[in-house]
Amino acid sequence: MGVREPNITIARPWCGHCKSLVPEYKKLGELVSKDPKLSSRVVIAKCNADTHRSLGEKYGVQGFPTIKFLPRGKAPTKDNAEDYSGARNAEAFIEFLKKKVESDSSFARVDALSDIASKFAASTDKAALIKEAKVTVEGLSGDDKANGEVYIKLMEKTVEKGDDYLTKEKARLEKLLLTGSVHASKVEDMSRKTSVLGALLGEE
């Protein structure tokens, strides 16, 4: 699943309610693909419940269509798959997804570096914290290691450019992301940096 947050509909092709949802779901896919911030972090998926009965059983599906939201970074289970109970139209779906993405403050954060990050902005010995962070990152793997490298790069950049770099760079990236002019291939990387900058500034 990586960093993406799937939104899944479990349906049956012959179901009238499922059929009526198809145009809205197609419109949702188009809206997500046009929004760089969403397209880099959200996957819209549809599942045929007759063909994949085990998936419906896994998530405790009782009726059709059922719409589930699966959070990023967790192995999907019945317990963490959230039922969507809002309006069944593309506009309501997209607002739901935007709120989920915006509230995901843990995106790109590394728990093993949280103590170091919380001390960084106010520290008078940033070099020592960078050294500690490098040792910690060496022991990580997967996404945590990749994200840990981002922490180190931004920490080193702060030492190079000055303490106000964190605030200025975060504001710059957030402004660019809000314009919607950033190419989709760069949005995920910029969102990752924004989140890590927030961690280094002590933001929750």
UniProtKB/TrEMBL annotation:
It catalyses: Catalyzes the rearrangement of -S-S- bonds in proteins. Residues 1-102 form the Thioredoxin domain. InterPro entries: ERp29_C, ERp29_C_sf, PDI, Thioredoxin-like_sf, Thioredoxin_domain. The keyword Mitochondrion does not apply. It is an enzyme of class 5 (isomerase). GO terms for molecular function: protein disulfide isomerase activity. Its EC number is 5.3.4.1. Gene3D superfamilies: Endoplasmic reticulum resident protein 29, C-terminal domain (1.20.1150.12), Glutaredoxin (3.40.30.10). One of its GO terms (biological process) is protein folding. CDD domains: ERp29c. GO terms for cellular component: endoplasmic reticulum. Keywords: Disulfide bond, Isomerase, Redox-active center. Pfam families: ERp29, Thioredoxin. This is protein disulfide-isomerase.
